[in-house]
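Example 9 (inverse folding). The structure is encoded as follows.
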């Protein structure tokens, strides 16, 4: 089987829970609006702008690529993340991503009351809290009084593992099951059908996948050459097994335009 044929077969397996398809679908703000109306329980919610693969920079440390950043009609900024594997401390990841988004959207010297409200929506295939719920809201609570306090940062966790008959659970079926479509979510279902079942959509996904494969191969080869030149052999060995560490090294050592 040729490389192009292999890429096409892999593209057919993609669903909205996969980074590649989600980021492509998130180019349409109507898609983000539809899923956020369900997840945030707000049928009047509006998305003014959606930016897939938003680059959040941190001059002192690790920068991130957010799956999608949305600007809502009420002024809130929302980061939507999709995750298939339960392979790291995702709560700290949410905390870090929220901090990066906040700092990137806040001008130096701004008064604290004008720091933007930020919401991180974390969509996963697994039940992150093992509470047998498809939707979790994490609040800041005063331990001594039980009172919920608000500092403008909101965390919402959604998972596709728990089937509880809720609207969120129905939406998650569309996210993870190959043949699942639902008329309750016409934008999501229509976009998924485009990229999974039409020649035009499949061609687009294949082109994106092929480009990513080529770019990633070039980046890895360049990183490996730099590590060898710097005699960082142990880092090179670790990077072949630890993809998060490999990404960290890329941010540290590769040119920003690569």
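The amino acid assigned to each position is listed next.
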């Amino acid at each position: 089987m040729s490389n192009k044929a292999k890429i096409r077969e892999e593209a057919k397996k993609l669903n909205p829970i996969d980074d590649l398809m989600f980021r492509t679908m998130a180019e349409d703000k109507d898609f983000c609006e539809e899923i956020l109306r369900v997840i945030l329980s707000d049928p009047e919610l509006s998305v003014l702008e959606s930016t897939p693969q938003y680059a959040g920079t941190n001059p002192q440390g690790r920068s991130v690529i957010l799956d999608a950043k949305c600007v809502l009609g009420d002024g809130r900024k929302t980061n939507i993340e999709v995750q298939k594997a339960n392979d790291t401390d995702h709560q700290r990841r949410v905390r870090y991503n929220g901090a990066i988004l906040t700092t990137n959207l806040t001008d130096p010297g701004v008064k604290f009351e004008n720091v933007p409200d930020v919401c991180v929506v974390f969509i996963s295939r697994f039940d992150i809290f093992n509470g047998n719920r498809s939707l979790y809201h994490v609040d800041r609570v005063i331990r001594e009084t039980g009172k919920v306090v608000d500092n403008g940062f909101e965390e919402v966790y959604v998972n596709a593992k728990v089937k509880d008959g809720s609207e969120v659970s129905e939406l998650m079926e569309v996210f993870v099951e190959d043949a699942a479509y639902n008329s309750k979510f016409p934008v999501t279902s229509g976009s998924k059908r485009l990229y999974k079942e039409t020649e035009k959509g499949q061609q687009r996904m294949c082109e994106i996948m092929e480009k990513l494969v080529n770019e990633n191969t070039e980046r890895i080869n360049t990183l490996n050459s730099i590590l060898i030149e710097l005699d960082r052999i142990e880092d090179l060995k670790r990077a072949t097994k630890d993809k998060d560490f490999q990404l960290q090294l890329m941010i540290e050592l590769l040119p920003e335009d690569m």
